[in-house]
Amino acid sequence: MKFILILFAFALAAWYLSYSATRLDRLHHRVETSWANLDGLLQRRAAIAIEIARSEISDPASAMLLTFAAHQAREASVRDRSQAETGLSGALGILLETSSHISGEIEKDLIRELRELTEKIKMAVAMHVDAVTRTQLVRKKWINRIFRLAGTAPEPVTYEFEGDVL
Description:
The protein is mainly α. The chain is built from 5 helices and no strands. The termini are far apart. Helix 1 packs antiparallel against helix 4 (105-139). It has a single domain (31-154), classed as de novo design (two linked rop proteins). The longest helix is centred in the N-terminal third of the chain and has 53 residues, at 2-54.
């Protein structure tokens, strides 16, 4: 009888460890998926910024600044991404403040698309931050650290630009 209880306790512990490892794996997958979605939206925002810079909306100096910021955001390494996205957000923010005098239909469509995309980015940032926060909380549990249930998955992080008002 004692053997059966020990076997049952061992099976229960093994099940719990397996459940926890699977949960961590799903959370890491959620972080990766949310980042891929956010990255795609940010790349689309940079493309729209380049289209806006080439349109009649901005003057030559603003167009050059916007083009530079968009290319920098598209080409930035992971380490420099926050600064590049913050720069693009600033350049687009200035443009959106002065976009009330736009008369062309194409330009209005570009600005509308940019505003819609900005809302999607805000939502994607919130989802990514939530996924990272939940994953970090689960990773901090003592049982997950002792048994190294996260495996070799890197610690998920949020970037500085996610706190900016996009």
